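quick one before i forget lol
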Amino acid sequence: MRDILGAWLSVLCVLHCSLPILLLSFGANFGLHEFLESIHDEWLHAVLITPIVLILGVSLPKAYMSHRNPVPAYLAALGVFTLTVGVLSGHLVETILTVVGSTLVISAHLINRKSLKSHVEAVMS
């Protein structure tokens, strides 16, 4: 369950970073600029990245003790690093890096979940 929640939080991160660019491209004529700036405030980055890191910190070590697959941890570490660098960098680079970082974190959660399920099935049979 934690991996599903973590993956969905990372999807929200992707939407948070890519949606303003898409809406600004298509919605400039509709006066959406102020709205887009308000949803892209800096404090929202901390609000999104904090639970992502916390869920990774709880989910991955416990699962690793069962399935012993290091790939989710590697992907998660690279994803969090990329997210952090993205948040600290400029606008266009920020979007690219946060989308890549979020995708890596999503992949880490899904591989972790799959590895854990495979391990449980192997133990049960």
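fyi The CA atoms of residues 60 and 73 lie 7 Å apart.
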